């Protein structure tokens, strides 16, 4: 045992054991969601496109990677296997580099994605006034959003709803303070269009994702350092 720090060895073992368990749980849940009949129906019936499938598949991949890395890390530490520790180090390094690359790409394309988001929202405004049923789901989503955020329409307020304004009885109904409301077709409706609220909400979620990514990066760097130290200590035994 001389030369190998028990502290590093056992913290490596415990941390990676936990990761390994987390990986198994994520993998098991994701596979269960993917194959179970009930969720199959929900995933495909709601007309959400293919995004839930992509999310579940991504979760399966993430779970598998965490499980394999956790296994390499915890077995590599406890058995003092340089080969496993090296694989663990390389795997973790690749993930960290991918994360950094994604961060750089994200920052570089931020103006572009802001523009695309803005244009998509302007484009989708048409769906609110569509009477042929094509925008039904989008309309329901926006109605829920309007009630929660006390706003109306997407970009121009109540007029975005066009002829549909009469179809939904309580659409945009404003019972708040005067300064939040305006009159439209003889009804009191919320004045503020929803576009800025939607953008704010997305921006908040992006910040959460960035925060998680930074937290992960710190853990990954710790893992890199620990596995490297252990690898060297085993070598010099
Ligand atoms: C969003 O797009 C619309 C229409 O394309 C444009 O008039 C508006 O200035 C854009 N707003 C921002 C903040 O880019």
UniProtKB/TrEMBL annotation:
Disulphide-bonded residues: 152-172
Keywords: Cell membrane, Disulfide bond, Glycoprotein, Membrane, Transmembrane, Transmembrane helix
Source superkingdom: Eukaryota
Membrane topology of the entry: Multi-pass membrane protein
GO process terms (BP): regulation of gene expression; spermatogenesis
Gene3D superfamilies: Tetraspanin
Cellular localisation: Cell membrane; Membrane
GO cellular component, one term: plasma membrane
Membrane-spanning intervals of the chain: 12-33, 53-78, 85-109, 206-231
Keyword Transmembrane helix on entry: yes
Keyword Disulfide bond among record annotations: yes
Pfam families found in the cross-reference section: Tetraspanin (PF00335)
Subunit and interaction comment: Forms homooligomers. Interacts with MEP1B. Interacts with integrin alpha3/ITGA3. Interacts with RICTOR and MTOR. Interacts with ADAM17. Interacts with ECE1.
PANTHER family: TETRASPANIN, TETRASPANIN-8
Homology family: Belongs to the tetraspanin (TM4SF) family.
Protein name: Tetraspanin
């Amino acid at each position: 045992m001389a030369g190998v720090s028990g502290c590093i060895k056992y913290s490596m073992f415990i941390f990676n054991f936990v990761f390994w368990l987390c990986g198994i749980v994520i993998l098991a849940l994701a596979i269960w969601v993917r194959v179970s009949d009930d969720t199959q129906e929900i995933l495909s019936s709601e007309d959400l496109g293919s995004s839930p499938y992509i999310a579940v598949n991504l979760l399966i991949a993430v779970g598998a990677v965490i499980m394999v890395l956790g296994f390499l890390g915890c077995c590599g530490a406890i058995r003092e296997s340089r080969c496993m520790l090296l694989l663990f180090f390389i795997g973790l390094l690749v993930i960290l580099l991918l994360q950094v690359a994604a961060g750089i790409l994200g920052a570089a394309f931020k103006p572009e994605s802001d523009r695309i988001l803005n244009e998509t929202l302007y484009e989708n405004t048409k769906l609110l006034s569509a009477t042929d049923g094509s925008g039904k789901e989008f309309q329901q989503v926006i109605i829920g959003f309007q009630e929660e955020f006390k706003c109306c329409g997407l970009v121009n307020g109540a007029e975005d709803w066009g002829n549909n304004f009469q179809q939904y009885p309580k659409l945009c109904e404003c019972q708040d303070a005067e300064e939040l409301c305006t009159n439209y077709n003889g009804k009191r409706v919320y004045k503020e269009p929803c576009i800025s609220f939607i953008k704010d909400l997305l921006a908040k979620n992006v910040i959460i994702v960035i925060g998680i990514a930074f937290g992960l990066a710190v853990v990954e760097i710790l893992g890199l350092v620990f596995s490297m130290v252990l690898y060297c200590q085993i070598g010099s035994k």
